[in-house]
Amino acid sequence: MSRQTSSRSASAEYPQGTASEWERFGERVRAVRERLGLSVEELAEGASASPHRIRQVESGSYEPQRNDARRLDSALQAEGVLWDAWAQTFITAGLRAGATVADLLPQAFQVRAYAPLVLPDGFLTEDYARALNRVERPMEADFLIPDRPTIREVCGTFPGPPYYCLIADEASLTRPVASPSVMRTQLTRLRDLATGDRVTVHLLPQGTAPHPGLRGAFWTLAFSPRHSLAYTPHPRGPGHLVTDATHIKGYADLFSTLQGVALSATDSLRLLDQVIERFPDKPRRRALTTGLHHGTSDTCDTAAAAKG
């Protein structure tokens, strides 16, 4: 989507930065182009852009997206330097503008998420997400929960980044959040995503020995090879974006440790298939008895299915 720095709408697809930040990035692009002896038209051809767009980037009047930056980096033989410069500018501008994780995530190249309790936003079906909201906030209607970031749905068929790697505890798959049919649909969606090209899933099976990830969920978002953020979701509010380089590296190292403890992607799919079968397509038929309490059947059925 073409966006210019003069547009400051709150509904923009990703956060706008100050002109000076993007001007500095544009100056770097122009300096590399001129050092290589390329004209604007030649760079435009190599970067699959129009000459007008290249002039906008170099003047700082257009904020390039991730794919724009990668094409410029390739056309100028910058070996990742311009891509990294774009990522640093994008992160700095976004944080300065008060961006949430939902604003920044679409421009990430890789997203790695650890889910010990429930599956993360973006992977959820609408029915499962609604059931989870009812569990978390039983006294509030869905439309009264505006404080959580609206994470874009992960699409398994859309080509290209962001690429996702999810590590999930088996308990996050079997926890009886919704009815068996909703649970099965949710797990089937996760399996469909895991068999595509953009999502890899690793599961920590029940019985796994204590590991460093017991304290809670977190994400890491890589915008280029050298520039990342970490994120910790909260039950209320927008969660916390981690910007300190030492802590970001700590989260990245923790994710790698968990990946070493978890099952392989192939074994995780096998376990996921087994978990899906614990939640039948149709409710099990039960003998008629007396003394049943009304309104408890869905919860009891899901709890029984979760126990397998």
Largest β-sheet summary: 6 strands, mixed
Major beta sheet, strand line-up: 3-2-1-4-5-6
Please report the distance between the alpha carbons of the first and last residues: 48 Å
- Computed over alpha carbons, the radius of gyration is 23 Å
User: What name does CATH use for the topology of the largest domain?
Assistant: Endonuclease, Chain A
How do the SSEs run, as a string of H and E? HHHHHHEHEHHEEEEHHH
Q: State the helicity in percent bands.
A: 40-55%
> Outline, from the CA principal axes?
elongated
How many distinct beta strands?
6
In DSSP terms (H or I, runs of 4 or more residues), the helix count works out at 12
Low-confidence stretches: 1-15, 290-297
The portion of residues forming beta strands comes to 5-15%
Number of domains: 2
Which features characterize this protein?
308 residues, alpha/beta, 434 Repressor (Amino-terminal Domain), Endonuclease, Chain A, 2 domains, six-stranded mixed sheet, 12 helices, 6 strands, elongated, disordered N terminus, DNA binding, Transcriptional regulator with XRE-family HTH domain
Explained architecture:
- A hairpin with a 2-residue loop joins strand 4 and strand 5.
- The chain is built from 12 helices and 6 strands.
- It has 2 domains: 21-99, Orthogonal Bundle (434 Repressor (Amino-terminal Domain)), CATH 1.10.260.40; 104-278, Endonuclease, Chain A.
- The chain is α/β, with parallel strands linked by helices and 308 residues long.
- The model is unreliable at 1-15 and 290-297 (pLDDT under 50).
- This is Transcriptional regulator with XRE-family HTH domain.
- InterPro entries: Cro/C1-type_HTH, DUF5753, Lambda_DNA-bd_dom_sf.
- One of its GO terms (molecular function) is DNA binding.
